[in-house]
Write a structure and sequence with these properties.
alpha+beta, 3 domains, four-stranded antiparallel β-sheet, 14 helices, 8 strands, 7% strand, elongated, disordered N terminus
Length: 384
């Protein structure tokens, strides 16, 4: 069950992956990240600055797997015990929370410099059962992309207070969660996100997208990023205006995603009911529909046979022209009638279907494909 849940978090199949699919995934990742670059979700390619060979951590991985530390899963009736966080880690997490809105305001600048994008963020995320796997070493760019592309990450309450979700904690099985969000006034509050698995899954997917880049390329510290941004904007950035437009754009994107999902759902539902309606029409004229299919199949076979014969004649005629056995005038005299006959055959088949179905159903709503699906479905039901 946990393996299925883990695969769903990553947006994958709940069935086991074969070796071939794993190899294909590695090939896809190579194509996504050309050597010396990272490719962001919006398609932007950033030049990267390689680390010295001795600084590369070859053993670092971030696979989604069951927790083995006992901190996030019950082991032999022992309740999970979360390891204490060091003062240094808490200070770094607080630095990120204190400057989250400032960093969001500078999103365009950060997402144009790989060293800023890959700056590590000391935020503690974790799930019951799988722990911190999938969440290891999130970067500043990961958070910016996650805020930008996921619902409920940039929140506005009923009083208009804005906040940013910056830690995820909960159960992928029950969906219960206690996440942290930092308000614009700097206060940190506990929030519960709906569709928790979807939010975790999107974060993990983005975070693991850059796993290799985190160990291969140079990155600023968060404090270095802040120092650079402070020097560059020199207090001249209209901070509130930029944040307002960021939240407005996020809401527009969220509503567009909702609209697309609703349209897709309604389109499927409409197609489902339309097919049921057409099947009901066919059931009233089942004998005539079956007779139509038999006559249609016979005419289609004759049409195909004659069309293929004409195509072979055309091919032979072209060969004669190429060898100089006939001139162009003779070629056209024979070739043009063949093309005309092929078009006539197509039209005859179309005309038969149109007139016959209109005669049976008194409309053009039912086509031959729908009738074939109707009988396939009926045969399947009779077998069951």
């Amino acid at each position: 069950m946990m393996m299925n849940e883990s695969n769903e978090l990553l947006g994958g199949s709940t069935q086991g992956h074969s070796t071939n699919s794993s190899e294909k995934k590695r090939q896809d990742e190579k194509e996504t990240f050309p050597d010396g670059k990272i490719v962001l979700l919006n398609g932007t390619q950033l030049d990267c600055y390689p680390l010295a060979d001795e600084d590369i951590e070859t053993e670092f991985q971030d696979k989604l797997e069951l927790d083995t530390t006992g901190q996030y899963v019950t082991v032999r009736k022992c309740k999970p015990r979360i390891a204490p966080v060091s003062d240094e880690s808490m200070q770094k997490q607080q630095l990120f929370a204190d400057n989250a809105f400032y960093l969001l305001a500078h999103m365009d600048r950060i997402m144009n410099d790989s060293r800023m994008f890959l700056a590590p963020v000391a935020a503690r995320n974790g799930l019951a059962y799988t722990g911190t796997s999938g969440f290891k070493r999130p970067t500043l760019g990961v958070y910016l992309e996650w805020w930008q592309t996921s619902d409920e990450t940039m929140l506005i309450d009923n009083e208009g207070c804005r906040s940013l979700v910056f830690t995820l904690a909960g159960s992928p099985l029950s969906g219960m969660n206690r996440c942290s969000a930092v308000r614009e006034d700097g206060k940190i509050e506990i929030v519960s996100l709906s569709s928790f698995n979807r939010h975790c899954g999107s974060f993990i997917k983005i975070n693991r997208r850059y796993t290799e880049a985190k160990v291969r390329y140079q990155a600023y510290t968060l404090q270095e990023v802040l120092d650079i941004l402070h020097r560059e904007d020199n207090g001249k950035l209209d901070y509130d205006h930029v944040i307002t437009t960021r939240f407005m754009q996020h809401e527009i994107d969220r509503l567009n995603r909702c609209l697309e999902q609703s349209l897709e759902r309604l389109t499927k539902e409409s197609s489902h009911w339309r097919e049921k309606y057409l099947f009901a029409l066919i059931s009233l004229k089942e004998d005539e529909a079956r007779a139509f299919l038999a006559e249609n199949d016979e005419l289609e076979t004759r049409t195909t046979q004659e069309t293929e014969h004409l195509k072979m004649q055309k091919k032979a005629l072209k060969a004669q022209l190429k060898r100089g056995q006939i001139d162009n005038v003779s070629f056209q005299r024979s070739f043009t009638p063949m093309n005309k006959r092929i078009e006539e055959l197509k039209f005859q088949l179309f005309r038969f279907r149109h007139d016959k179905l209109n005669e049976i159903f008194q409309s053009n709503e039912v086509d031959s494909g729908t009738i074939e699906r109707y009988f396939r479905e009926k045969d399947k039901q009779s077998m069951n």
